[in-house]
User: Which sequence fits this backbone?
């Protein structure tokens, strides 16, 4: 999303052979997790190898982990992950839903910010894993004349394996720039009032559309090893606060909402309760026939929501005796979400852009 509205010119008083310099801009670079280029074996293997080789994601010693990953896990997992991606793939555009939604979010945010702040900004997006890479987008922004870049990981909650590694990659990209722009990163927005309001509105709309109101709202967050929490990662606490603020905004009692964690990987204990086990328990032990599930930690619907929640976790609930399962989509590019993200960006641009 290069801004070509301002033509590069030679600086005043520069010699005739001075290379053209683009007009100065401020860049806003949105970042999401990433997506494979396709769901075939080799596309999935490349993506999973990059993702699972990140020491922020899997912190085991490489000399132990890499042989296991490359020789065993990546000989099988691309097939199962590829099948999961195929079930949700946007065949019309030839890409994953995460790519489609992130592009739409970026376009909506860009329209808002250009309307509010003028043409001196450039808005684009990158992925931590896969394409478009963080490195390529930082390079595009610097070549387009961005002397300042605001980097915005699209994760409401901080975790080393999400915001942390996205920021790492951004700073690595800056290290390769001859002329480095000034840089800022956006802090987690898990308690931002507009974000909480947007979540609450999505719940209210989903409940109003349901034939029968769900008896329980399951607020499912992506999991992480419990060990990371004990090492000081604030993710768990921030998730709990989002649930509490959402409940208070809805005006609900505590018995109508519960916090769970999904996407367990590997043998060690992760944050509990596990979503897939809790929805089954709600049906079997508590006799809940109608539940709704929302995933506030994801800014856009992706494999973990469209396939894991709306297929696997739904199936676990129904097999345990549940009857009505409502998945509440991520905020994606809806107006309230775009408004919230736009205001967060403008707050972080203070002193840079009037």
Assistant:
């Amino acid at each position: 999303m290069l801004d070509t509205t301002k033509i590069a010119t030679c600086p005043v008083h520069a010699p005739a052979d001075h290379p053209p310099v683009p007009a100065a801009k401020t860049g806003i670079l949105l970042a999401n997790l990433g997506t494979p280029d396709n769901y075939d074996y080799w596309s999935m293997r490349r993506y999973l190898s990059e993702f699972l080789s990140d020491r922020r994601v899997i912190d085991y010693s490489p000399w132990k982990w890499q042989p296991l990953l490359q020789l065993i896990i990546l000989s099988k997992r691309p097939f199962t992950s590829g099948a999961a991606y195929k079930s949700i793939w946007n065949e019309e555009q030839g890409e994953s839903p995460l790519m489609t939604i992130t592009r739409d979010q970026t376009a909506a945010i860009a329209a808002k910010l250009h309307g509010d702040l003028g043409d001196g900004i450039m808005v684009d997006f990158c992925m931590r894993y896969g394409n478009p890479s963080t490195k390529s987008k930082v390079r595009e922004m610097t070549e387009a004349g961005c002397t300042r870049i605001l980097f915005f990981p699209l994760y409401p909650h901080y975790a080393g394996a999400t915001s942390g590694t996205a920021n790492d990659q951004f700073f690595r990209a800056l290290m390769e720039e001859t002329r480095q722009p000034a840089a800022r990163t956006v802090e987690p927005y898990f308690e931002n009032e507009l974000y909480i309001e947007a979540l609450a509105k999505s719940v209210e709309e989903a409940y109003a559309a349901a034939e029968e109101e769900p008896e329980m709202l399951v607020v499912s967050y992506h999991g992480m090893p419990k060990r990371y929490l004990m090492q000081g990662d604030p993710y768990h606490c921030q998730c709990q606060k989002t649930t509490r603020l959402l409940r208070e905004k809805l005006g609900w009692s505590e018995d109508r909402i519960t916090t769970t964690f999904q996407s367990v990987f590997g043998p060690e204990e992760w944050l509990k309760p596990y979503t897939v086990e809790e929805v089954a328990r709600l049906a079997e032990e508590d006799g809940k026939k109608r539940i709704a599930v929302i995933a506030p930690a994801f800014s856009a619907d992706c494999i973990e929501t469209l396939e894991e929640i709306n297929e696997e976790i739904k199936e676990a609930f129904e097999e345990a005796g549940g009857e009505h399962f409502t998945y509440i989509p991520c905020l994606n590019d809806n107006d309230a979400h775009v408004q919230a993200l736009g205001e967060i960006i403008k707050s972080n641009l203070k002193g840079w852009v009037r």
In short: The chain has a mean pLDDT of 94. The chain is about 45% helix and 15% strand.
